[in-house]
Sequence to fold (419 residues):
Amino acid sequence: MTKNNPVKDKFSILVDSKAKLIVFSDIHLGARKTKASTNVDNEISKQIDALSTAEKAIVVLNGDIFELWAGESPTVQKALLAHKKLNNSLLGISKNPNNKIVFVVGNHDGALGWDIVQQQYLIKTFNAEICFAFELNIKTKQGKRAILFEHGHMLDPENAFEDPRDPHDKPFGQYLVQKALPMVIESQGKLIKGINHLSEPHQFPKFVASRIFYRELLSKSWWLLIPIVITLAVRLIVGYDLYIAAGFSPAFTSRILVYTEVAVFFTVLGFFAAIVFILFQLLSRAKSVPSNFGPDGHHNSPGRQKAQDIINFGKNIGYITGHTHRAEVRKLQNGFYANSGCGVEMVESSKTHLKLPKTYISRMHLHWLSIEIDQSSLRINHWQMITTIDNQPLLEKIVTKRPKGNSPLAIQKQLSIEL
Fold:
């Protein structure tokens, strides 16, 4: 925190017992509601309202709560006014002086690190704290134990800021979102619709190859039916001539025409199969671009590694991030790592029949963490709800192996840590 900037490098709270928290991140609220943000507005507001009976409630908005990299003059005010249920729930919690609302700055809402107008709006409206890291200190019989909350983008070189208080500091990821992607989407239109929601951004070559294969090549191969249609027309003309002029019997004439049609059909079928095979071989060469994942190739491996490091060399028992959109609760040696997931639409690859190239389907994800603290233990619940959005063209629906249905709102995983 500087003289003119109320955002703290690290904000700390000390609790003793009977505290309850809800942690969510990466819901990317904008001035216009989407299917995903409507889902967030409805469900998370209920969870915040349920905290009203707690002795002490803490709401941790763990980064990328607001989408300030897209839209026309985006602001936190516009986003909250568009999502009134969530806004009202935060207002309700903020009225109790025992409660606290903490906004951790992410990369997509990085303007909270330097924009005094938006900072003051959150502080005055919700009596909120804004910080780059939040530390929850828990008083136990063995002394203080701590959980560190960060958005996690600083573990991702493409989205890390050198100085998060500098309005001119823009990471490469911001350029991609604000400049590169809009230009690509505008030039290609419906062909790559959804690329901005790709769950694995490093797979965009495979995504584009899949869309070209199904939506351009296969969908427009109907012209291969033209020879068969011509053959049927010729059958009527030539068959009539053979029967009338040459005097062939109807049975003989019919056999000649059938043989001709079968030959044409298999020729066209062979031609089509050859085209599909060649295209499949070409498109299968589309490779993922290099990613910045950890040594095990998982999105959350840098977070897990930092978690283990701060557990080994300090008072921390846990580390919670967001950013990757991959919810997780994992027990580590002497502590834990958790990721609060997201509340957005994600376009994910799906297996297909006949080992054809993978298709991409849209699924609406909603995740958050609930934490209960008492004198002897810490309990963490990972809540999850996933809904498939039916927006695939017919051809892709036919070849896609559908996911195992939707995931209703439920606790996906529970973890208990002794204090």
Remarks:
- The chain has ten helices and 14 strands.
- Residues 250-283 form the longest helix (34 residues).
- Residues 11-200+291-418 form a domain with the Purple Acid Phosphatase; chain A, domain 2 fold (CATH 3.60.21.10).
